[in-house]
Structure formats: structure tokens, C-alpha cells
Amino acid sequence: MMMTIPANSRVLVVLPHPDDECYSLSGTLAKHIAGGGQVTYACLTLGEMGRNMGTPPFTNRVDLPRIREGELKKSVEAIGIQDLRMMGFHDKTIEFEDRQVLDGTILDLLTELKPSAVFTFYPGYSVHPDHDATGAAVVRAMGRLPESERPPLYTMAFSRNCTDEIGFPDTENDVGDFLQNKLDSIHAHRSQFPSPGELGKSKKMDRELRERFSRERFWTFREFPNA
Amino acid sequence: MQLIDPAIIQQRIHDLQDQDLYIHLEMTTGAYASHLDSTKHPAATFISNALIRYTTGSISEKAPHFRVGLKTEHGWVYSEGLTHYEESDSERLILAGHDTQGKLVVALQLSKEPF
């Protein structure tokens, strides 16, 4: 199923780490923004416990949060996101956070922004404990909205067993026209990723990048707890 | 970050002894360790901004994987696999161990102020 989000509407993205948006979602966001839409990206932490420090290492445990904040802002700019919220939680602690605080923070965003769609990780199938805990918190918070006011929730998953257990993604977005935004978003996270390559270098690389990055797929999440 | 010179670090450890210090100590194999290779064991642990005071402390001599031991009133702090230090930070001692891909594996940090 192709993804349809109403044009000119506001989308809310809730993810825990500064680079979580780039590989699976940045094209979708850039496309929505190019069509006149708004995006709020609530990034819960600054990824301050990340292990990647560049090759060779160009930063350290103390300076990493500042570096990653800069990378996040650069990525957000590459995508065109209008509203970045840095929520001030600590990397690796989302699953241990006070649920009232965490869920309340997300519910506040939902009631303030009234988004037409929400994006996060599929809880339980997203490998990193922060990813799973963020997805679970979004699901709990959205469960507290009346069903008639609940926007669609699009989720990302990539654990090894995910398709065995939750099936294949049901929604697909062709973001081939926004590959440059996506590559710029990935390149922005210099401390985290080696460069996947640049468009315009060669026909072969363009084809490879297009094959690898021009489709973004999501699972529509439907099993909300009763409010 | 610079590769560790044990003589410099030994002096810095000595300069910080016998005073209340905040310690950040961690070790991690990464949250993705068993994602692609299930034989790998994902382990991570950190303690951040605990207050310690050590009476004696030293760093091992042999590059590239250094060990540091700090003797406290009632116990010890031990860390192995340290490779780098932050040379631009004169107030705090920031030590880290990076693997061949540059990923952080271990960190030991000491400061008079919380991190």
C-alpha cells in the first residue's frame, strides 16, 4: 500500500537518538515537507552513550552530546524539518524512565500538535532498548487519545525475527525524488556512519543508491491498549 | 583524543589523588552486538557521577591497551583496554578505549565537577 499523508498537515516523529531518522524515514519526511507539510521531530536523547566516535576517533564521551546535537541539527536542516524538539532524556535510560513523565511528555506533544500521522519504532522489534521503549511509550500515549482523534501510527522495525512475527511492512513510500535530502541527512551524522556515497559520482553509484534508498517501508501499528 | 602516553597519565592520576572526585566508568560491547551475530554477547554497564576518593592510583606501562587501578579507602576501581586520552582537557582526566573501528569499548573519567 502506498503511503498517503494529507498535504499541508503536521506530522510528529518521536525517536530516541539523533541518527534514528536518517536511514528509514528522512525521504518520507522530505517528501511531506516538499508537499507543503510540517514536521515536528521530538528527539528524546542526544545519543550521548553512543560508541561511534568517528574513524579515527575525533571526539570523546564528554563532548559527544554536543557533537551529536550539531549533527542532528544539520540532518534536520537537510530534510527541511521545521520544528526540532530536543527532549532532554538520557541515552540508554528510556526503558527505565518514570513512565508518567515519559508518556506525559509524548501525550503533551500529541495534544499540542494534533498531528495527522505519527512515526516511531515498532516496540519489541527494533533491536535497541531505547528504540523499543520509545515505541512502547508512543503506543501507550496514543492509547490515551480517544479512538476518533488517534492519527495513524507508522512504525519502523529491523530485528532479525521481525517479519516472521509481525509480517512484512504494509506501507511503502517512494522517495526517489528526495534521495539527495536523504543522503545529506545520513552524511550529517558524521560521528556515526561512514558515507554511503554521493549522487552524481557515477551512473553505477546512482543506480546502487537508488536501489538501496528510494523506498521507505513502515508497519501501521493498530494494537493500542485501552485508555 | 590522543593515544595514551603512560607517563603523562600517571602524573595526572597522581595530581587528582586524595580528593573527592566524580567518576564515570563504563564498558560496552554495543547494543547491536548480537543483532547480526547471535554468538556475540551484548553487555554494557556504566556508573556516572559517583563520588570517589583514591589514595593511590597508577597506569600500566605497556601499549596499546592500558590498565588503570585506583585504590580507594574501602576498595578498588579497575579498568582495562584504555587506548586514548583527551589532551585538551587539563582539569579532568578523560580516558577511553577504542576498538579497531574506532568504537568506544571502555571509558574511565575523573573530574572535580559532575560530568
Automatic annotation (TrEMBL), chain A:
Organism superkingdom: Bacteria
Gene3D superfamilies assigned to the protein according to its UniProt record, in alphabetical order: LmbE-like
GO function terms (MF aspect): hydrolase activity, acting on carbon-nitrogen (but not peptide) bonds, in linear amides
InterPro entries attached to this UniProt entry: BshB2 (IPR023841), GlcNAc_PI_deacetylase-related (IPR003737), LmbE-like_dom_sf (IPR024078)
SUPFAM superfamilies xrefs: LmbE-like
Pfam families the UniProt entry points to: PIG-L
Name assigned to this protein: Bacillithiol biosynthesis deacetylase BshB2
Natural source organism: Paenibacillus bovis
UniProtKB/TrEMBL annotation, chain B:
Gene3D superfamilies xref list: Hypothetical protein YojF
The organism of origin for this protein: Paenibacillus bovis
Organism domain of life: Bacteria
Upper lineage: Bacteria, Bacillati, Bacillota, Bacilli, Bacillales
Protein known as: DUF1806 domain-containing protein
